[in-house]
Every structure is written in structure tokens, then in C-alpha cells.
Design goal:
The protein is built from 3 helices and 2 strands. It has helices at residues 2-15, 23-30, 34-47, and strands spanning 50-53, 59-62.
């Protein structure tokens, strides 16, 4: 599941579709709960794998 999540974020970052990298949209597209997605994205951010943009909604980019 985590690899599916990280691949989705990576694909959207490369294609420039950053607005698709919010927890709500990622959850809907991949079929996961927003809470689970948000927790995992923040974990990836804390390990240094993602860049977090503190806007509303919060967006994540692949490094």
C-alpha cells in the first residue's frame, strides 16, 4: 500500500499535477481513508522523502 501511495505522489510531482497530492484526493483515487493517507504522507515527510507545502489543502511533493 505504501509503495502505491509513494508512486502516485511521484507520478503527480513529475507531471506537475501538484494539486492532486492532497490527502483527500489521494485517498479517493487510491481507495484509502484520508486519515491513513495523511498519516503516511507525514511519515514520509518526517523521513525526508517528501516535501510538504503548508497550504490549504496541504500538498506533498516527491523530493
Amino acid at each position: 500500500m505504501e509503495t502505491k501511495l509513494s508512486e502516485y505522489i511521484k507520478e503527480n510531482t513529475i507531471s506537475g499535477e501538484y494539486e492532486k497530492n492532497s490527502a483527500l484526493i489521494v485517498g479517493k483515487v487510491l481507495g484509502f481513508s484520508r486519515n491513513w493517507v495523511s498519516q503516511n504522507l507525514n511519515d514520509y515527510y518526517n523521513t525526508g522523502a517528501l516535501i510538504k507545502i503548508n497550504s490549504r489543502p496541504v500538498l506533498f511533493l516527491n523530493k
